[in-house]
Amino acid sequence: MAKGAVSGRFHLKESEYGITTGSAATAAALAALLSINGSITEVEIKTPLGDLNVLVEHSEKLNTYSGRASVIKFPYNDPDVTKNIEIFADLIITETSGVIINGGDGVGTVTKPGLQIPVGEPAINPTPREMIISNLQKNLPEGKGAEVIITVPGGKELAKRTLNPRLGIVDGISILGTTGFARSMNLKSYKTSYRCQIDVAVAEGYKDLVFVPGNIGEKIAKRILDVNSDQIIQMGNFVGYMLEEASKEGVNRITLLGHAGKLIKISASIFNTKHSIADGRREVISVHSALSGANKEFIMKIYESNTTEEMIILLEKQNLVIPVFNSIAESIKHICSERFKMEFDCMIVNMNGDVLNNNYNKS
Q: Which GO terms of type biological process are on file (predicted)?
């Protein structure tokens, strides 16, 4: 079996499934405990979905009451940035019952309210905490407890490639997972990570938010709008999901700001803007060009264009940029307000960050 691979009742295929950081931390903690009585190469942990066998990368007895172990979060078919990381656990048996879990180097610390973990605590989510506690308690000597420190070498740098800095989780990654298993291309987990931004913003009292597709939109928003960083929410391609979650949390008003190539899809009621899911950009701009008075020959040029930026250049030559994008922005605001019962504003930009419509709230 490959290093770090899982086995057990599920007979999981490595290419399709992996283990969560929570399972890796749990397995490392259990291996650290068991290593006090000898070297450990594999452990069986209990997860919310059942038993899971995890190979141990390293284990050692430190003294009569402590041990150390690590587990590799083995690769699987997913863009997860935590693939192949090594998660360590240092454990000390205590005379007092109960399990205390701390985060060491490479594990983030929560600094903002609204997340599942209180401010000041290590970013080890509830399910991984419960898994670590329950798996250790089954194997601790009677009447004894344990103190565990989870560390992730390189976690501080790795966290820069995650949403943690936006969520107020500093100096490391989060230990996550709700089932113990990481499924390839798990949209649910991606969506949940985006949604946490809304939780943080609402917890800080913001009811007027700016939704952007990603990093580029966020940079533009910071440059042209007078808003705080926590009011800017990256929604990725999950426009419909994020707007629905915001409406559930009582958000009053949302400004949609982003590149034309993403935002104009919303005017066609496309609420997942991933290119492989749906496109419609040339159709949208063609229709709104027609509504703005363009002739058939020009509309054909728009329709035959390959990129949104190319279409924008054509519109500029005909002095149609503002009319067309005003029309698209009105359509976006109308469709969103009907569906989500919030107030909406819309700012559509090009790659340089220039706003292409002028029918937005300038206050």
A: anaerobic cobalamin biosynthetic process; methylation
